[in-house]
């Protein structure tokens, strides 16, 4: 007869804690677009796994869902904001360079050279 082995319970998988950590990381790193979205999605996956685990904390799962979703939404909105302002800066640079007239040299053209603005003397009515 073989001696009985002592009962060794399976190690617990704390999906709720992992979900909370990933959700917090998604919210903290919302300024880094790819990282925040990836970490937020991983946090939501752990939330789903924790739902079916016995003994997981419902409050932790809810907080993890809120933090993960807030991190993803904030990251996406900041990314759209940055892209908008980047395109505005590019458009502004293009408009400024477009308004600069080409250099005209008297020997290249026969028409009189006109200035871009007209200087008029200031008349004071004292």
In words, what does this structure look like?
It contains three helices and no strands. The chain has 126 residues and is mainly alpha-helical. The chain has a domain of 61 residues. Helix 1 runs antiparallel to helix 2, helix 1 packs parallel to helix 3 and helix 2 runs antiparallel to helix 3. The longest helix has 42 residues. It starts with 14 loop residues before the first helix and ends in a 27-residue tail after the last helix. 20% of the residues are buried. The mean pLDDT is 80.
End-to-end gap: 123 Å
Structural class: mainly alpha
Assembly type: single chain
Shape label: rod-shaped
Per DSSP, the total helix count is 3
Gyration radius from CA atoms, angstroms: 32 Å
Topology:
Layout: H1 15-28, H2 33-51, H3 58-99
Short description:
With 126 residues, this protein is mostly helical.
What key phrases describe this protein's structure?
60% helix, 126 residues, 3 helices, rod-shaped, mainly alpha
